[in-house]
Amino acid sequence: MTCERPAKEDASKPWHKGEKKKMKEVVGPVFKPNSSNICETANPCENGASCHFSPRRNDYKCRCLKGWTGKNCTQSAEFDPCSSNPCQNGATCQAKKEKGQPTTYECYCARDYGGPSCDQRPCEQNPCQNNGTCRTTRSHQLYFCDCPNGFGGRDCDVAIGQTPPEKFGKNVEQVSSGRAEWVNEMKLRFANKKKSDADDPEGAAAAAKEAAAADEPYKDAKQKKREREEKEEKEKLEAAAIQKAEEGKRKKAQQEEEVG
Questions:
Q1: Nearest-CA neighbor of 74 among 82, 87, 65, 84?
Q2: What pLDDT does residue 143 have?
Q3: pLDDT of residue 28
Q4: 34 falls in which pLDDT band (50, 70, 90)?
Q5: What total of structural domains would you count in the chain?
């Protein structure tokens, strides 16, 4: 049995007042499926991101992959210098970040490869002489030679203790490029100066300064920084000691004036 008109009208039910058709017209468009789903028609999300459309808001949202951000995932969240695979021949790339500097990369080369991008084999031609061992590096100096006893120089081509031939004129003396030989020769020179300046404090100080200058080109940045900090600390202590001594003298003078 169908009841066309209820015995009692209910104000909360629009069809009891003949407004059923009006309700359909109002409610219908709200829940009508949205045909303009931009994720299906255009997919604005880039770089592998997934697009999610909201019919209620008539808007979309991109879920970006790691390393990307922005409305459409087009902005790099963090620069990755290794993303372009700059290291070659099986090398391992590692991002390198220093304070105040842009992010760079460093390649850890496979055996027998060298250079900043591990794209060269400098030891293939065996540049090291006199049974020296060639070893690759990651720096722009592609290799270095591990020389046997009695030899030095970049390619182990200089016999330690022998005077290399003069190449730069009569007034310029050339020494071996081997670090040990060059430093030892400088130390011997300054040691002889020390002996003659034993009774001269100023001469001894100058000799010590020159000896330190001889080792200066071979000091790394950390050592230089450490020595600079030690020097500054020493200067501060000396200044504090001088100030303390002056204050002591001043107090003593005041006491003498009061007694007098």
A1: 65
A2: 84
A3: 46
A4: very low
A5: 3
d(CA 147, CA 69): 53
Question: Would you say residue 193 lies in a domain?
Answer: yes
Considering the domain boundaries, does residue 222 fall inside one? no
157, 139 contact by CB (below 8 A): no
* Residue 97 and residue 141 in one domain: yes
Q: Per the domain annotation, does 239 fall within a domain?
A: no
117 shares its domain with 156: yes
- Pick the more confident residue, 217 or 57: 57
The residue from 160, 191, 207 where one domain ends is 160
Asked if 153 and 112 sit in the same domain, the reply is yes
Q: Give me the count of residues in the chain.
A: 260
Give yes or no for a contact between 203 and 209, defined as CB atoms under 8 angstroms apart.
Answer: no
Give 49-70 pLDDT, tens digit per residue. Answer: 899 998 888 889 888 876 677 7
Residue 181 has pLDDT above 80, yes or no: no
Cα distance between residue 42 and residue 90, in whole Å: 39
Containing structural domain, residue 175: 170-215
The answer as to whether 254 is a domain residue is: no
Token pair, residue 219, equals: 């000091």
Q: Which of 58, 50, 51 is nearest to 33 (CA)?
A: 58
Query: Based on the domain organization, do 91 and 156 belong to the same domain?
Result: yes
- Taking the CA atoms of 218, 223, 224 and 230 in sequence, report the sign of the dihedral they define: negative
Q: Is the pLDDT of residue 214 over 60?
A: no
What count of other Cβ atoms lies within 10 Å of the Cβ of residue 181? 20
Tell me if the pTM is above 0.90: no
